Amino acid sequence: MDNARIHPLLREIAAVFQNYGRDLYLVGGAVRDLCRGEKPQDWDLATNAPPEEVMTMFRRVIPTGIRHGTVTVHYKGQAVEVTTFRTESEYRDGRRPGKVEFAATIGEDLSRRDFTMNAIALRLPEGSPVDPFGGAADIKKRLIRCVGDPNERFSEDGLRPLRAVRFAATLGFSLDTAALDAVRPALTITAKVSPERIRDELDKILGAGAGSGAGRPSTAFRLMERTGLLDLLIPELAACRGVEQKGYHQFDVLDHSLLACDYASRERYPRQVILAALFHDLGKPATRKAGERGIWTFYQHEKESVRLCRKILTRLRYPNAVIDETCHLIGEHMFHYTEDWSGAAVRRFIIRVGEEHLENLYRLRQADTYAMAGLEPDPASLLPLIQRVDGALAGNRAFSLKDLAVSGKDLIEIGVKPGKHMGIILKELFETVVNDPSMNSREKLLEIAGKINERYL
Ligand code: ATP
Ligand code: MG
Q: Theoretical Cys-Cys bridge with 98: which of 1, 64, 90, 350, CB 3.0 to 4.6 Å?
């Protein structure tokens, strides 16, 4: 273990605890990361001091979760969470501990933790390990193993199976067979877990490809499929298994979706793009029809994908802005650019997609292309379209009513009545300009507006 990576500030904080006659340990993900030779993201500390006492030890301490024994210590510009040793015995509703009791020893505290790799403590300041369940050896074996009996651990908290597959995906570890076998019997417990907790795990799964190691989201989804978690949590995705496509595609719809998701995660695309990559073809099972010469067609599948994606993300309590952009990208993912697109066609594409979504739509296309055969997409393949789009954006702007050389006020001045007629006229002017941006002058547009207006008078 690389103790040199223990932050010097943690040693200083530990000295304060020592002055109070209290013990302090580094615990959780940070210790796991140190064991793997990785730099920890955040620091979780455990102590035998009650939270009220920790509040008195430092000048700035925030009682972030004091009911559960957690306070946040701000020390020399760093924030660390300090949690009093706990035992958690009852998870009656499968959601959260029925009651929190403080424990006397680090050993007790470690024994309530989920996996052996998460149940190692380093005593501070020196960093000597406390590892009662062989967590360090499991990390070496790249194995996720439960602390104690997996069936018991999973029935206490139905989120743990999902945490297990999440860690498998982010760390590239495998799941111990006893733990794997314990997932299915606990599905009824997992079914009671709050959607917000499920969503937070799913988000971490989606980011699995962004690390330095062997992480990828598909590892989690394959384990979820195998254990019934996918049927429980995202049955719409599970339904894509066995939906063959042929043509340019090598894979069924599920494998294709997982590859697209892995690519988007690996490229560190925004979350909306990773979600869109995962869900862009959800509508294929319902829209598949046998076409000519036995080739499958999926006419307008993107519409059904949007519908199902919205259903899933709403169920999982994703923020509306994320849902809207993800669905928008999916709805637009079927564009087919060819050189013979007119300037107006390029402008219509920009208007339909929206300038601010173009980059993400290109990214989705790259992921989709990769996932057809698992081959790196040619970065040049989208260039012809991108160049046309950039050219259009740099030219005379005509992408929204705001870009028009005339406003509603100008129209009123030439005698157009506000209301429905004005709306019709503005739309007509906009169409004119989209077709031919050189028409976007005050003089020309007012002339056209005047003529249309006469028709309504
Ligand atoms: P990451 O921060 O990457 O999600 P982590 O291991 O730090 O990983 P946290 O959710 O921050 O995970 O939790 C910190 C520690 O608390 C874990 O390492 C584990 O020991 C314990 N823990 C968290 N959630 C649970 C749970 N549902 N059941 C049992 N122990 C848990
Ligand atoms: Mg953590």
A: 90
